Amino acid sequence: MTPPLPAPPASTAPFLRASGLSRSFGERRVLTDVAFTVHAGARAGLIGQNGSGKSTLLRILAGIDRADAGTVEVPAGARIGLLRQDFPLDAAASLREVLHEAQAPQFLARARVEQAGDALALDPDDPERIRELDEAVAAAERTGAWTAESRAEAAVAGLGLASVDPGRAVETLSGGQRARLMLAGLLLARPDILLLDEPTNHLDDDAADFLHRVLAGWHGPVIAASHDRAFLDDIATEILDLDPVPASLAPGGLDEDAPATEVRGLTRTRGRYSDHVLQRLGEREAWERRYAAEQEELRRLRARGRDSHLVGHSGAAPRTEGRAARKFYADRNARVVRRRVDDAARRLEALEGAQVRRPPRELVFGGLDVAGTPRRAGAGLALREAGVTGRLAPVTLDAGPGDQVLVEGPNGSGKSTLLAILAGHAAPTSGAADVRGRVGLLSQDPAPRDPSLAVEEVYRHAVGDARADAVALPAFGLLDPRDLARPVGVLSTGQLRRLELAIILADPPEILALDEPTNHLSLDLATALESLLPGYPGIVVVASHDRWLRRRWQGQVLSLAPVTG
């Protein structure tokens, strides 16, 4: 087991506070009145549907993006570090240079100690030089200057980069290696506040355990946006959920006087992700029950307002025909009617002003068989010692319709390479691979598309007009209807993967190959997808690091050996 990085010193950032953050892109509102505080030592898991604004919120907190309204408050001088899903690294820089740059303040602090020491040696009794040395030593201790090399070695080993040549350029690294290098550099920089956007997407079990140990000892606030359920259960001390809940139904609402019509921009739950899921289900059910009951009461009050304009029998004459009697009964009728109408109107006005909003329509995955089932019988996989030099050790695999195969193994063992062979995107350099049937491959990186095309246009171009007419994109329940006319260039990575999944399922393949299917997908969709895979009539091959998925897997398991040589 790789030892964890030494814990950073006590944080100079005891909190991070967001107040009333809102952000729109054009006419689309992404964040609405988001407010929360995360204190030092707390580890907040940030969750929400694809496109709910998780990455946008992290960029605002890091100062990379600006909110339309609201403020972010941190103590003066606090350093904020953000792990981004894109990789803003110098392509020509080497792995060694990236890590050295991350620790540059620590090496500078050590150099200042040496300079201050040399200066003091020239005049040992100078109080100003003594003070400068004391300050330099304190700064070096705060930054971890004395342990910089050992921490770098621990991070490289813990994140599975020890086998990578330190002189290799970033542009030659795989996407997973670049992601782990970004994470290593961020941890070595030791910011006071740590913001992580999908930190486990490219981590195997050992690397995920290493990150868990590092975060467990982090002194400053940590916010991690993640779709990794096992990771959230392991590290989170609280959950920040961007999916909406009315303020009146959410525990610890915005304030006690907040109107019931207000929908919170964020729901906060203390404890683990599993605890949050149960609470969230209860809140949604309560919301739907209250909305239904209020709508029924509104209908009743409106009907009462219409029907309460007469008292008694409208056609019955008073018992005496005298003019005074007729006036008496008419006045009485008017007073009673007015009281009833006024009472109904007051109750209607009060309820209309305080009624809870309609629960937003939740995306519900239509299933793997929206467009039917695989058409071809006799599909199968037969791999015999199939391997790729330097990328995939020889493997043997047999699978037929109805079989589910989980491919697991450490980073660099060739999981994606194996799926590429099945899809015909790569060829084995040894052994043989017999693939019978069409393969639909959901890659980790969405296929490049013209960013100016609308989502529906991309779908139609990919599947053809006839199939797009027969199986409309909304039928899958993967994308919000309001997003269908938006250009794909503004979609989140999770939304792009949802689109790719719909394109694959529009003509169900005999072999469904999914490369890290839970990466970037919302927790609800990941759970739904896992539950439906066992019923797919074709062959399912899943390559995954997801510990939650693997713990519940019931099909075959193909464990890949690390590639050597």
From TrEMBL:
<keyword id="KW-0067">ATP-binding</keyword>
<dbReference type="InterPro" id="IPR003439">
    <property type="entry name" value="ABC_transporter-like_ATP-bd"/>
</dbReference>
<dbReference type="InterPro" id="IPR051309">
    <property type="entry name" value="ABCF_ATPase"/>
</dbReference>
<dbReference type="InterPro" id="IPR003593">
    <property type="entry name" value="AAA+_ATPase"/>
</dbReference>
<feature type="domain" description="ABC transporter">
    <location>
        <begin position="16"/>
        <end position="276"/>
    </location>
</feature>
<keyword id="KW-0547">Nucleotide-binding</keyword>
<dbReference type="InterPro" id="IPR027417">
    <property type="entry name" value="P-loop_NTPase"/>
</dbReference>
<dbReference type="GO" id="GO:0005524">
    <property type="term" value="F:ATP binding"/>
</dbReference>
<dbReference type="InterPro" id="IPR017871">
    <property type="entry name" value="ABC_transporter-like_CS"/>
</dbReference>
<protein>
    <submittedName>
        <fullName>ABC-F family ATP-binding cassette domain-containing protein</fullName>
    </submittedName>
</protein>
<feature type="domain" description="ABC transporter">
    <location>
        <begin position="368"/>
        <end position="565"/>
    </location>
</feature>
<dbReference type="Pfam" id="PF00005">
    <property type="entry name" value="ABC_tran"/>
</dbReference>
